[in-house]
Amino acid sequence: MGTQVATHMASIVLFGPPGAGKGTQAALIMAETGLPQVSTGDMLRAALAEGSALGIEAKKYMDAGLLVPDSVIIGLIEVRVEQDDASGGVLFDGFPRTIAQAEALSLIEDVDAVISIEVPDERIVDRICGRYSCGDCGAVYHETFNPSAEQGICDACSSMKLKRRADDNEETVRSRLEAYHSQTAPLAQWYDERGKLIIVDGDKDIAEVGNDILAGMAGFRD
Ligand code: AP5
Predict the structure, then answer these.
(1) Is 164 a catalytic residue?
(2) What is the DSSP string of 68-86?
(3) Cis ω on the peptide bond leading into residue 96 (within 30° of 0)?
């Protein structure tokens, strides 16, 4: 592995628009830091798959490309960070997404760094509409930019349960982008004012973005 990253990290936030590559780069950061990934999107999809009331309620927002209410999300996170594997910090993916969520997080967890992956809107639709992922291990692929080596089979775990997300269509992506710009993007300045923001150009190939993230994290900790 290239750049050495300090081992005494508390929690890290992966931040950026839908399709920026947060989930893709989370795998690299987890391998580098040992932090467990906490993706609010994955947690909501798991709740829906279980048929819980929370999952069914969240689906209405997710299908429309809207943010799920802060109270629901903050409640999920408060429970998650109490679990044993979170005691040394976590890698938040897709949380926080509003100033209210960030304020709530600041009361329950130390955030060391917020990695903002910047990608222009015009790239996002192609990325989202070509995405598929493994239903067993969660590995993320793209039909053009990052296909699995063998069609229909996950490289990471050999599962044949490759699937697409219900909200990965052009209409919903445009709503998700609107929500991002109006409710989430202002958080970058909020974290910058607190000295925690690392900006990475996400409009490069996956390996280059990963290298830039690790370099940014190493420089940040010096
Ligand atoms: P969530 O699941 O968090 O979705 P998202 O933020 O919209 O982000 P994505 O998972 O779509 O994208 P990503 O950045 O992880 O990109 P990926 O690595 O997969 O949220 C879904 C919904 O849940 C929300 O709309 C909302 O309703 C709700 N929700 C979740 N959290 C919430 C919160 N905190 N508050 C309120 N509501 C919440 O990459 C995308 C594709 O691009 C892949 O195919 C990948 O292979 C490809 N790719 C990645 N990097 C590159 C690259 N550098 N070059 C080319 N292709 C690339």
Answers:
(1) no
(2) PPHHHHHHHHHHHTTSGGG
(3) yes
Distance from residue 145's CA to the centre of ligand 1 (Å) = 15
For residue 62, what are the domain limits?
8-119+197-222
Please list the pLDDT of the chain residue by residue as tens digits (222 residues): 444 444 445 899 999 999 999 999 999 999 999 999 999 999 999 999 999 999 999 999 999 999 999 999 999 999 999 999 999 999 999 999 999 999 999 999 999 999 999 999 999 999 999 999 999 999 999 999 999 999 999 999 999 999 999 899 999 999 999 999 999 999 999 999 999 999 999 999 999 999 999 999 987 765
Its pTM stands at 0.93
Please give the tally of structural domains in the chain.
Answer: 2
Do residues 63 and 100 both lie within one domain?
yes
Pocket of ligand 1 (CB under 6 A): 16, 18-24, 40-41, 44, 61-62, 65-68, 73, 94-95, 97, 101, 127-128, 130-131, 140-142, 145-146, 176, 202, 205-206, 209
- Is residue 196 part of the annotated active site? The answer reads no
94 and 12 in a single domain? The answer is: yes
Closest to 170 in 3D by CA, of 138, 203, 130: 130
Going by C-alpha positions, the residue among 201, 183, 152 that lies closest to residue 69 is 183
**CATH number of domain containing 51:** 3.40.50.300
Residues 110 and 210 in one domain: yes
